Amino acid sequence: MIIIATHPQLQGAIEAAAVGDAFVDQMRNLWARVAGLTWAPGSGLEGLFLGPKEEVRAEAAKGWMAGWMQEFETDRAGTLTSGTVQPGALLPADAAPEHFRLYAAVQKEWFQYDIYARVCMLLGFSSFVQSLAFYGNGHIVVELRAFYVAHATAFTLEVLHVLLLRFDIIQGRVKSTDRTPAWFLWLGPVSVLFATVGMSLDFHVHFSIVVVIFTWICIFGAYVCQICYQLRILEVILPDDLRNPLKIEETIGDAWWPASWRCPSAFAHVLYFVAPPNRSQPGQFDIVREVKEGAQGNAFEQAGVPLMEARPVDTSEATANPGMSPEEIIAQVQYLDRLFDYFMSDQVFDALTDTNKQRVKDLFSEFSAARRKGTGPEAMRAFADCLMALEGITAAEGMKHEGEASTDAGYTSASAGRRKVDIFKEQEAKEKCASRRDRDPEVFPQLENDDNLRQALRGDHGQLAPAGFGPPSD
User: Fold this and answer.
1) Where along the chain is composition biased (Basic and acidic residues) (predicted)?
2) Rounded distance between C-alpha atoms, residue 322 and residue 315, angstroms
3) What are the start-end ranges of the H helices in 174-282?
4) Contacts by 211-214 with C-beta closer than 8 Å and gap 24+?
5) DSSP 218-232
């Protein structure tokens, strides 16, 4: 039997063969892509894997490779902290990492759904318990005429109702725009009480006009209490206004969200919602941001560590200056006084950055205020903080040489005072050299290579003052 293919069948076979050839060419192009070859015009790579008769597919392949390269460049540039802006121009140094900010931006779109799902659980359970109390009253009284059983059932259910309201709603959280008092919340259980008493009076065996009057009073009382209760519930579940936001302290393991996110703060302790932090804690590093932008500015600020960090300290006098004699305390104060004179001199102060200039001024104000208080525990802690901050400024400004012996950062040992006295000798030697330099500036460069002068500059610790940071002259 001879099968003769029609024109549509031949056309389909030709198209199928073309698709197969295109697939093979695509695999070849993929190998070229992995090898890093680019389809630059005129480079001769256009016909490396493609035949001369496949111009259409060659153009498509070139477009595909261009799209791949464009996709790669877009991935590199499509970040929140693009390299086209200066680092720190849009974000502070302690900003949260990029993936934290991305997740917070997404979370802000649906956090109210999460929060109100939790609020609706409370509303559903409280409404069910209260309605069950009403139903139990009617069913037990009508069917069984067991008044005490109905009263006990309603009382038990309303205890549960009160506990739900008490546990899930922060008491005393009143917003500035509230139109209902906080005690309206407890009128919901009271409405069940009015309904229970009114139903008991309504089923009174003997007619009495007084009983009828009290029954109607209980009926209207139940309606009024229920309406007030619902109004208070409605006001509690509304989001906070902008004038009265709830500022939650950020602690590990607790719920937290930014104060600008509007939500019903009366349920803050049961929402169990945790948003990413918007600031990095001191000592935390954003390595991804450093790789993209590089370390810019002050290294301490980029790392999120201020030059002087407030620390919890022991307030007892025994730990303020342990094992230190009055002479050592006076020596430390004198050392700090000379150290501030050194930093406030024109030669050193002009070489500091603007941030450290202001920092030195603030530290000097703190030192002066603590000095007027005497040598008590608070003053000694202030002296220690000032010394630590000044040493941090010294390190940040590059005023120490490599291999220099580390200094004691505080007043926590009895040897600290003796060490400061040794530094006084070093300071006096430097002042003498500076005075000699001012008197004879032409000879001083030749004298700087003299062994005696270098020994005087080094002092007892082998520390050579860097050029341009000598102490002020007398």
Assistant:
1) 427-442
2) 13
3) 187-202, 209-237
4) none
5) HHHHHHHHHHHHHHH
